[in-house]
Write a sequence for this structure.
C-alpha cells in the first residue's frame, strides 16, 4: 500500500527550500568576461565622474563676466589664446577678454566658467591674432559638465548581487575595474530519468519520446545564472540511478532530476532518496502543474526531484530552483517578480490547487494584460515556448473571466532577471 502524500502550500514548500539557500563563493574575472555575471560586492565611486569640469560642446571657453554686455548690436570681442582638444589641458591662464578654443570632453581652462558653442561665435583673424565675437551674454556655468555631476566620490555605484548588464559594464570600466569580483556560478547537475527517453538526435520509435526536459532545464539553469552539468539519461533502474547520482553529487552544488517522482511502478526517486540517506523536505505541493515536485537534502545539498511532465518540470524549476540559484548569486530578491495583470481570456477551470498558468503578459497604456498560452496541461511543451509569465490562480477558486485582475509572476527575460 502506497504511503499517502500530503500536499503542502506552495509558500511553505518554497520556505522549506530556502532554508538551505546559501550565498555562493566569489571569484575574480577579467572585465571582458564580466557581462552576464553577478557582482560579489558593493561598488563605491573612488573618484568623481566627470573627474574634472569639462566642455560638453565644441566651442570656446570664456569668462562669463566678459560677455555681460554682449548684444546683437554690440558684440563682445574676445582673443583666442589657444586651442585644446579632449585629453589635453590648457597651458595658459585666461585673462580678461580672452577665450580658449575647446573641444567636447576637454577640461575647462582655469579662469573660464562658461562655454559658447562653435555655432554661436564668429571667429576671425586680425594682425596675426585670433578673435571671436559673441552677440549674447552667457552666465557662469553655462554649457559646462561639472566634476561629479554624474557620480560623486563615495556614492554607491552598484550593489552586491547586481546583474552585470552593458550599463554596469560601462560603470566598471569607468572606475578602472580591469577585473571584477563576481559570484561563482553554481554548478547544477541535471539528470533525466526514464526508459522512454531518446537522445535529441535519435529518430522516434514506438513508445519513446525525446528527452526535451534536460535541454529545457539546461536553458533555465543558464538563464538564472548558473552552470548546467549534464548527467545524461538515467534508466528506470534504482541501482543504476543511485550509482550515477552518488558519483555526480560531490561535483555539483545541487542536483536536478526530472521524472520518476510520482507513484508509478518505475518512479524510483523516493527509493533513491531513502537509499542515499537524504531527508525529504516535501513530496507533494498544492500546485498545478508540478504537484509531485519533491525536494530532499543531503548534508545541506539540495536534490530537486522535478516532475517528468515538461510544464510541471519548468514551473518547478522557476519556483524552487531559481531562488536558490539567485541567493547563491547574492540576490536580495531571488524569487520571480510578482505583479498584477488583467486577464484577457476567460479561465473557467476549477483550481483545487494553486494553478500556475503559462501566460503571455503584455503592457498597454501602463497596464499589464495576461493571456494564457497553449493548453493548460502539465504534459504540454508548446505553451512554454510562448510564455513570459505565470498567471497564479489561488487554490479553491474557479471561474476567472476576462477582465479579472490576477497575480502574475514574470519569467526572466533572456538578458538576466526581470527584477
Ligand atoms: N496514479 C497517479 N498517477 C500520476 C499522479 C498521481 O498523483 N497518481 N500524478 C501525475 C502527475 S500530476 C504528474 S506531473 C506525473 C509526474 O510523473 P513523474 O514526475 O514521475 O514523471 P514520469 O512519470 O517519469 O513522466 C511523466 C511524463 O513526462 C514525460 N517525461 C519524462 N521525462 C521527460 C523528459 N526528460 N523529457 C520529456 N518528457 C519527459 C514522460 O514520458 C511522461 O509522459 O505523474 C502523473 N501520474
Ligand atoms: O505535477 Mo502534475 O503537473 O500536478 O500535473
Amino acid at each position: 500500500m502506497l504511503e499517502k502524500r500530503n500536499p503542502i502550500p506552495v509558500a511553505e514548500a518554497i520556505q522549506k527550500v530556502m532554508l538551505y539557500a546559501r550565498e555562493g563563493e566569489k571569484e575574480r574575472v577579467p572585465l571582458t568576461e564580466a557581462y552576464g555575471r553577478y557582482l560579489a560586492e558593493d561598488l563605491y565611486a573612488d573618484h568623481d565622474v566627470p573627474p574634472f569640469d569639462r566642455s560638453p560642446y565644441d566651442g570656446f571657453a570664456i569668462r562669463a563676466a566678459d560677455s555681460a554686455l554682449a548684444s546683437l548690436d554690440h558684440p563682445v570681442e574676445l582673443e583666442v589664446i589657444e586651442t585644446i582638444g579632449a585629453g589635453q589641458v590648457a597651458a595658459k591662464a585666461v585673462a580678461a577678454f580672452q577665450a580658449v578654443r575647446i573641444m567636447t570632453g576637454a577640461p575647462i581652462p582655469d579662469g573660464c566658467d562658461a562655454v559658447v558653442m562653435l555655432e554661436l561665435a564668429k571667429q576671425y583673424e586680425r594682425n596675426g591674432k585670433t578673435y571671436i565675437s559673441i552677440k549674447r551674454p552667457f552666465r557662469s556655468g553655462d554649457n559646462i559638465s561639472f566634476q561629479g555631476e554624474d557620480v560623486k566620490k563615495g556614492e554607491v555605484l552598484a550593489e552586491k548581487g547586481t546583474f552585470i548588464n552593458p550599463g554596469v559594464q560601462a560603470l566598471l570600466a569607468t572606475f578602472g575595474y580591469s577585473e571584477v569580483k563576481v559570484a561563482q556560478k553554481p554548478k547544477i547537475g541535471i539528470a533525466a530519468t526514464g526508459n522512454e527517453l531518446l537522445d535529441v538526435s535519435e529518430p522516434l520509435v514506438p513508445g519513446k519520446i525525446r528527452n526535451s526536459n534536460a535541454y529545457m532545464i539546461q536553458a533555465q539553469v543558464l538563464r538564472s545564472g548558473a552552470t548546467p552539468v549534464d548527467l545524461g539519461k538515467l534508466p528506470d533502474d534504482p541501482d543504476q540511478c543511485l550509482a550515477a547520482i552518488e558519483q555526480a553529487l560531490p561535483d555539483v552544488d545541487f542536483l536536478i532530476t526530472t521524472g520518476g517522482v510520482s507513484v508509478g511502478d518505475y518512479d524510483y526517486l523516493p527509493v533513491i532518496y531513502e537509499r542515499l540517506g537524504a531527508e525529504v523536505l516535501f513530496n507533494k505541493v498544492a500546485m498545478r502543474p508540478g504537484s509531485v515536485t519533491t525536494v530532499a537534502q543531503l548534508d545541506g545539498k539540495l536534490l530537486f526531484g522535478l516532475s517528468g511532465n515538461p510544464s510541471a518540470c519548468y514551473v518547478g524549476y522557476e519556483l524552487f530552483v531559481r531562488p536558490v540559484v539567485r541567493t547563491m548569486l547574492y540576490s536580495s530578491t531571488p524569487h520571480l517578480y510578482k505583479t498584477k495583470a488583467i486577464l484577457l481570456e476567460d479561465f473557467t477551470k476549477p483550481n483545487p490547487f494553486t494553478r500556475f498558468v503559462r501566460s503571455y503578459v503584455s503592457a498597454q497604456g501602463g497596464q499589464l494584460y495576461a493571456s494564457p498560452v497553449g493548453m493548460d496541461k502539465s504534459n504540454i511543451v508548446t505553451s512554454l515556448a510562448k510564455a513570459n509569465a505565470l498567471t497564479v490562480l489561488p487554490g479553491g477558486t474557479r471561474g476567472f473571466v476576462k477582465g479579472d485582475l490576477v497575480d502574475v509572476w514574470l519569467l526572466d527575460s533572456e538578458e538576466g532577471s526581470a527584477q
